[in-house]
From TrEMBL:
The record marks 149 as: Transition state stabilizer. Transmembrane segments: none annotated. Keywords: Hydrolase, Magnesium, Manganese, Metal-binding. This is Exodeoxyribonuclease III. Pfam families: Exo_endo_phos. Residues 4-248 form the Endonuclease/exonuclease/phosphatase domain. Probably binds two magnesium or manganese ions per subunit. The record marks 248 as: Interaction with DNA substrate. Coiled coil: none annotated. The active site is at 106, 147 (proton donor/acceptor), 248 (proton acceptor). InterPro entries: AP_endonuc_1, AP_endonuclease_F1_BS, AP_endonuclease_F1_CS, Endo/exonu/phosph_ase_sf, Endo/exonuclease/phosphatase, ExoIII-like. It comes from the Bacteria.
């Protein structure tokens, strides 16, 4: 099974890019973030014609997450994180696909920091960590996949000294990520590339893609039961160079049966 995450940065505006990548990479499960489309504007027909079933949680102009599965429909198990019934932002979706529980997430950016947006990010992160701990008690094959908006270490950012005060790299956010992983989750990309600068995001400004001035903010965390089956992990970085591409590239893990 190949499980991928892709922040598409507007699913309708970049549908051609998504469909081309699906045809070429043939992932079995895909978690999408930043749909930037209301619920009724999700391109379900085009996705189904590409061979994928889908569930999604849209939101006008911002946010939005979806789970695609090749040849079958994901079985939805949760929509939204527990812990705050008033939180209306579309950032978490969970489903079972072929024996694996998939949590698709889009963690808040948090800038400017400090401030209300940063506080919301830390609160959301705490809710995710609490839910992740409950998931692990079930001892199932689980993947928490998506845009975490955090660079966990200095190896995950092209010039760490320039990001010290950014909400994606502040000590509080990195600590939250490390506490989440310490529950027993395996950071699959780092596991397979322990010493490499592996990036998943390149800004549209200052020729970041051309200079490889990237960030690793998209992560695929595996439960111990699933991590035993980890067979590979990488980034389809060339997708970032396509015309009208997202500023993210798809990242994926391969799990053997």
């Amino acid at each position: 099974m190949k499980i991928a995450t892709f922040n598409v940065n507007g699913i309708n505006g970049r549908l051609r890019v998504l469909l081309r990548w699906l045809a070429e990479a043939e992932p079995d499960v895909v978690c999408l973030q930043e749909l930037k489309a209301p619920q009724d504007r999700f391109p379900e027909g085009a996705i189904r014609n590409a061979g994928y079933g889908a569930i999604w949680q849209g939101q006008k102009s911002w946010n939005g997450v979806a789970i695609l599965s090749r040849g079958t429909d994901p079985i939805e198990t949760r929509r939204g994180l527990p812990g705050d019934e008033l939180d209306s932002q579309s950032r978490y979706l969970e489903a079972a696909v072929n024996g694996v529980l998939i949590g698709c997430l889009y963690l808040p950016n948090g800038n400017p920091a400090p401030g209300p947006k940063f506080d919301y990010k830390l609160e959301w992160f705490a809710r995710l960590t609490a839910h992740a701990a409950v998931l692990l008690t079930h001892q199932l094959p689980i993947a928490l996949v998506g845009d975490f908006n955090v660079m966990p270490t200095e190896l995950d950012v092209y010039k760490p000294e320039r990001w010290m005060d950014d909400a994606l790299f502040r000590p509080e956010v990195r600590q939250a990520f490390h506490e989440l992983v310490a529950q027993g989750w395996v950071d699959s990309l780092r596991k397979m590339h322990p010493h490499e600068r592996v990036y998943t995001f390149w800004d549209y400004f200052r020729n970041a893609w051309g200079r490889n001035a990237g960030l690793r903010i998209d992560h695929l965390l595996l439960s111990p039961e699933l991590a035993k089956r980890l067979d590979g992990a990488d980034v389809d970085r060339w997708v970032r160079g396509w015309e009208k591409a997202s500023d993210h590239a798809p990242a994926w893990v391969r799990i053997h049966d």
